[in-house]
Specification:
This is PNPLA domain-containing protein. By secondary structure, the chain is an alpha/beta fold. The protein contains 13 helices and seven strands. The strands form two sheets. Strands 3-2-1-6-7 form a five-stranded parallel beta sheet, with helices on both faces. It is globular and about 60 Å long.
Length: about 325
């Protein structure tokens, strides 16, 4: 059992039981499965400990106060948070989504006669698949993304001041330039945020600050556990995405941005990192040959992720992460002042 930290000598720190738990999910196409397999490992071990303690199992939406993601990470955030899926349900839905979306390419030539980048995949298939996933979980995809209902988990996948349906929010976070058509919500046009924030930890931090400490911006004392999960090191081939090398400079920049964001964030949150309150998980080897759209590589993604998690260093980090999460008593925030 992990010892509780103290605010003052002899006093348990209430952040250990009621502090914020935040989850940030990178974008990465089909490699989003790696994100889900890592999260499944964490949740399975958390629920095993809960069963041993005669406690009911929990879903991510019952543990995390805020789930944020970009691109396919945003899509996963919506399924886990807004649709309140457990991880196994999300994996099944995600596998079906990427199969339906990526099995048929719409355009072989990336640039049209006017010089504009054309969408390679059919956005209508993506829309229909999202609507189907929502319906199978008892939700109409045309319902407002922010419907005013109080939920334990808040989801960051769209701008909160833009009224959007669940389907529109999912389409907007998935609308990668050159892959899907940009999404119009009212007068505004949205494209995938991965072009500027493939690792959305800064955005998750900013949104959490806006929600829970808008006056001070002093988020760190409120955070019990901050987990950031990547989609694996993409490698050169996956970045170039086979024949579409004209995207390579942009996607190389995305990969570099992801690593740089991680480095800077850990430096700023060094105290939480050292106190085992911040965790970054990202498969380092084995996914270099998996392109963003290679939906048939599920087995390879699962095997590479399992090998990563089975490494002794990651075993210890998963253990520490679970020990942190299992002290959480409710998805809420108290006044720690």
């Amino acid at each position: 059992m992990q010892a509780q930290t103290s605010k003052t000598s002899g006093e348990p720190n209430p952040v250990d039981t009621t502090g914020l738990c935040l989850l940030s999910l990178d974008g990465g196409g089909v490699r989003g499965l790696s994100t889900l397999f890592i999260l499944k490992t964490i949740m399975d071990r958390l629920n095993r400990d809960r069963r041993d303690a005669k406690l009911p199992s929990v879903k991510p939406c019952e543990v995390f106060d805020l789930i944020g993601g970009t691109s396919t990470g945003g899509l996963i955030a919506i399924m886990l948070g807004r649709l309140e899926m457990d991880v196994d349900e999300c994996i099944s839905a995600y596998i079906e989504l990427i199969r339906v979306i990526f099995e048929g390419k719409l355009n072989l030539l990336p640039v049209g006669g006017t010089g504009k980048i054309k969408s390679r995949f059919d956005s209508r298939k993506l829309r229909d698949a999202i609507m189907d996933v929502a319906a199978r979980h008892g939700v109409n995809g045309t319902e407002p993304f922010n419907d005013g209902r109080e939920r334990g988990t808040k989801v960051l996948a769209e701008e909160p001041d833009i009224p959007a349906t669940i389907c529109e929010a999912a389409l907007a976070t998935s609308a990668a330039t050159g892959f899907f058509t940009p999404v119009l919500i009212g007068p505004r046009c949205f494209v995938d945020g991965a072009l500027g924030a493939n690792n959305p930890v800064d955005e998750v931090e900013g949104e959490a600050s806006n929600i829970w400490c808008p006056d001070t911006g002093d988020l760190k004392p409120l955070v019990k556990c901050f987990i950031s999960i990547g989609t694996g090191n993409p490698g050169k081939r996956a970045i170039e995405d086979n024949l579409f090398k004209f995207f390579s400079k942009t996607l190389v920049a995305i990969s570099t941005e992801t690593e740089e964001t991680e480095r800077k964030f850990i430096a700023r949150w060094a105290g939480h990192f050292n106190q085992k309150r911040f965790f970054r998980f990202n498969v380092e080897q084995g996914l270099q040959n998996v392109g963003l759209t290679e939906y048939k590589e599920q087995g390879l993604i699962e095997a590479a992720t399992h090998e990563y998690i089975a490494h002794q260093n990651q075993k210890f980090r998963v253990r520490d992460c679970v020990q942190n999460l299992r002290q959480k008593q409710c998805v809420c925030i108290e006044n720690f002042a």
